[in-house]
């Protein structure tokens, strides 16, 4: 299964995200955005050589308190790995895969899908293990994993299944492309890789293991350096797995298989939509496993499982309070959540994981005002806006906001809630997003 490969170009003052792998997306911010002032994204273009990248990183390390290149290499987190992956991915042949138009007639009808999952374990494998699938052990749909010692494989297999069940039951969607495609994932990527990403060229999601605390502690109990003792295995969270899989859904649904440009507002919107469906999947599963669960029980934080013990209540992003998901002191600095939550703070050079806080907050406000579970009316509105054939890869916040408004009006008429459209408008206005033709 291959998805289209994106090679976005820099336009105007917009720059591609440094989290770009094969034109697509990592779950978490790059290191340089986690401390100090809210930085704008520097240009990280596909035509940069590894030497240029190393020089750029060294220059950054000498100002603003960023991690030195030596420290990055010591903990196995240099940009070189990203660019090695990029060079490999660019050599792959890919094709455009378009999504089957989803059924929006009646989301309440029973909908049964046949899952197809393939999980690969890349532990102790080199980077080219992507190219040679026989070089890494794998498990397919129906294999017995009950006694499997590979914890990450079991977690990934089960979490993918939860996401597919959620999309089928709530939105009547058949896998990522709505055609029942196989879902491929790799776990234990690289050595202590503190991130996860979706690759359109590889047609799979990939998860790193983070930095465990063992062997890296100082006497004052603070982590030795950034992420060591903070970030754990990214495959442990249903929400993180759902987030990455949603990037595949976005990729093959929007703009006839082109997805959303991964820069500026479209890139931030891509991250936000993935976050929205991640939190809904997490909340839905909480309700499925505990009928007494209420929406008020949710803290609207995603990525909590990736934060290792010792940092209670923290996660990687908050839809309720963007910018307040985490604040963690390390030996050298304080790592902070730098997300913004109002359009007044936005500019086109912000890293997409930072500016995605704006539409994230809009969804939270909409779900809160509409009421019920997030995946009911609010989730249906966001999903129908996503599959709107009028969206293209350059979609702005205001364009998507208007799509959600129009879908809310339709659903409001069908459900006897004439104020539903106004509720969605108010949610977007709270974060400073306004569509030109909306009435004041």
UniProtKB/TrEMBL annotation:
Domain Peptidase M4: 134-210
MF-aspect GO terms: metal ion binding; metalloendopeptidase activity
Family annotation (Gene3D superfamilies): 3.10.170.10, Neutral Protease Domain 2 (1.10.390.10)
Sequence segments annotated as region (Disordered): 47-70
Superkingdom classification of source: Eukaryota
Record has Hydrolase as a keyword: yes
Keyword Glycosyltransferase set for record: no
Domain Peptidase M4 C-terminal, residue spans: 259-433
Pfam families: Peptidase_M4, Peptidase_M4_C
GO terms for biological process, alphabetical: proteolysis
InterPro entries linked: Metalloprotease_M4, Peptidase_M4, Peptidase_M4/M1_CTD_sf, Peptidase_M4_C_domain, Peptidase_M4_domain
Sorted UniProt keywords: Hydrolase, Metal-binding, Metalloprotease, Protease, Zinc
Family per similarity comment: Belongs to the peptidase M4 family.
Protein's name in the database: Peptidase M4 C-terminal domain-containing protein
Organism: Orbilia oligospora (Nematode-trapping fungus)
The organism's taxonomic lineage, starting at the top: Eukaryota, Fungi, Dikarya, Ascomycota, Pezizomycotina
């Amino acid at each position: 299964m291959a998805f289209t490969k994106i090679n976005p170009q820099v336009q105007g003052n917009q720059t591609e995200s440094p989290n770009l792998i094969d034109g697509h997306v990592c779950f978490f911010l790059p290191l340089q955005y986690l401390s100090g002032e809210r930085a704008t994204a520097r240009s990280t273009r596909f035509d940069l050589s590894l030497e240029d990248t190393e020089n750029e990183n060294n220059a950054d390390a000498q100002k603003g308190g960023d991690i030195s290149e030596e420290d990055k290499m010591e903990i196995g987190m240099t940009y070189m790995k990203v660019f090695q992956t990029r060079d490999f991915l660019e050599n792959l042949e890919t094709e455009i895969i378009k999504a089957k138009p989803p059924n929006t007639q009646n989301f309440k009808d029973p909908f049964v899908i046949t899952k197809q999952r393939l999980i690969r374990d890349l532990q102790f494998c080199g980077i080219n293990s992507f190219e040679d699938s026989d070089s890494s052990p794998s498990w397919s749909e129906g294999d017995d994993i009950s006694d499997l010692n590979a914890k990450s494989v079991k977690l990934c297999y089960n979490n993918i299944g939860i996401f597919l069940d959620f999309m089928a039951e709530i939105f009547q969607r058949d896998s990522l492309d709505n055609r029942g495609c196989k879902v491929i994932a790799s776990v234990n990527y690289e050595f202590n890789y503190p991130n996860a990403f979706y690759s359109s060229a590889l047609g799979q999601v990939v998860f790193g293991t983070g930095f465990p605390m063992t062997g890296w502690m100082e006497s004052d109990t603070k982590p030795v350096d950034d992420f060591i003792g903070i970030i754990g295995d990214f495959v442990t969270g249903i929400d993180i797995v759902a987030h990455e899989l949603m990037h595949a859904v976005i990729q093959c649904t929007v703009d006839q298989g082109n997805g959303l440009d991964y820069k500026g507002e479209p890139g931030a919107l891509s991250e936000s939509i993935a976050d929205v469906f991640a939190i809904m999947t997490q909340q839905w599963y909480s309700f499925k496993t505990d009928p007494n669960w209420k929406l008020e029980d949710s803290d609207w934080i995603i990525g909590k499982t990736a934060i290792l013990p010792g940092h209670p209540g923290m996660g990687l992003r908050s839809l309720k309070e963007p910018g307040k998901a985490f604040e963690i002191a390390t030996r050298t600095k304080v790592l902070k959540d730098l997300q913004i939550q109002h359009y007044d703070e936005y500019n086109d050079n912000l890293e997409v994981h930072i500016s995605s806080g704006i539409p994230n907050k809009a969804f939270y406000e909409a779900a809160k005002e509409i009421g019920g579970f997030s995946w009911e009316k609010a989730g249906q509105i966001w999903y129908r806006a996503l599959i709107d054939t009028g969206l293209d890869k350059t979609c702005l916040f205001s364009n998507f906001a208007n799509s959600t408004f129009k879908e809310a009006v339709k659903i409001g008429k069908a459900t006897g809630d004439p104020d539903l459209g106004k509720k969605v408008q108010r949610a977007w206005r709270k974060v400073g997003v306004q569509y030109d033709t909306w009435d004041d």
